[in-house]
Design goal:
mainly alpha
């Protein structure tokens, strides 16, 4: 019978599509490890990500609304969970490797900065124009997690993490699924949050897009997910049908015009960038004030790289509290 892990691997060979990436074909990990009798390698990666500190910090990182006090606004963690669920649905329907898909989705935003894309822009200005959250996510799992030893994830999961956005494509179809799931998730939940905040009304979405994609949150997601599944079935690539894909791109552009760029939700972005810029400058001048994990890398990688790692890992509220402690005078109490 073999181990439970052996049974999982045999099941993959017997049930998955010929286009699926089989776990037994992984390029493996960078460092030696003892195989697990109970879990496949991608299942282990999933567990390592879920139990990491950077995963837990996502609960207090901005999605669109900075440090929201409302209980129902998305955070980077709830975004990650929505991406993961959408990605798993698509992978399951296409008979692709659901474990690989899940691990990539859970890890795709581990390197995101506090204050969302405003924080990302701040790091580009303070540290390097080449800074990007997907590159930082890879750095988190390879170098920063687990007290600086990294999570030692498989090559395929790391490839999917670093290629989940932008023009680059993951080497596996499972990784490409996460790219589609990420876009489907954030387009729709950001509309939902913007409507909740009163900065967008559903009827403001162009009627032709509502006719094509659906009038409600759930209908739009269903339309997009169904489109990916139908267009990608028995195909060596992941894609949306042309009509739905075009409408999805137009809806995303609509969000950039109405929510992501000029709306009230972005009114505090300048303050957030200024806050992180001052923190960056302070810790470059006083690196001894950073935690040991980040101080320990200064000799090899330089203070600015290590300060960027420290600040990128902060949650919204930790960044705000750190700023207060450093730059806001305390009221004297007798």
């Amino acid at each position: 019978m073999g181990t439970i892990c052996d049974q999982f691997l045999e099941r993959e060979k017997n049930t998955l599509s010929s286009h699926a990436f089989l776990t037994e074909n992984t390029r493996g990990r960078d460092y030696p490890y003892v195989p697990c009798d109970m879990r496949t390698e991608f299942q282990r990666d999933r567990d390592r990500i879920i139990h990491s500190q950077s995963f837990r910090r996502l609960m207090n990182k901005t999605q669109v609304f900075l440090a929201p006090t409302g209980d129902h606004y998305r955070t980077r963690l709830t975004h990650t969970l929505e991406v993961t669920q959408i990605a798993r649905i698509i992978a399951r329907a296409l008979l692709l490797n659901e474990d690989l898909t899940e691990a990539i989705a859970l890890g795709h935003d581990l390197g995101h900065t506090p204050f969302g894309h405003a924080g990302e822009e701040a790091m580009r200005e303070c540290y390097s124009k080449d800074f990007a959250h997907y590159k930082q996510s890879l750095r988190v799992v390879e170098k920063l997690e687990n007290d600086g030893k990294g999570l030692n994830l498989t090559w395929e999961v790391r490839d999917g993490i670093v290629n989940h956005t932008g023009s680059c494509m993951a080497a596996t179809l499972e990784g490409v699924i996460v790219k589609f799931a990420d876009r489907i998730a954030y387009i729709n939940h950001d509309i939902d949050d913007a409507c909740r905040a009163g900065i967008l009304h559903a009827e403001e979405i162009p009627q032709e897009l509502r006719d094509t994609l659906g009038e409600t949150h759930s209908r739009r997601i269903n339309t997009m997910v169904t489109s990916v599944i139908r267009a990608s079935t028995d195909s060596p690539e992941i894609r949306m049908s042309p009509g739905i894909g075009e409408a999805t791109d137009r809806l995303r552009s609509f969000l950039f015009e109405t929510v992501y760029t000029h709306s009230a939700a972005k009114a505090e972005d300048g303050k957030a960038k200024q806050l992180l810029g001052q923190l960056f400058a302070h810790f470059v001048q006083h690196p001894e004030e950073m935690p040991a994990l980040y101080r320990g890398n200064i000799e090899n990688e330089g203070a600015e790289r290590c300060v960027c790692d420290f600040i990128s890992g902060m949650t919204d509220r930790y960044a705000i509290e750190t700023y207060k402690n450093l730059f806001i005078p305390r009221v004297w109490n007798t």
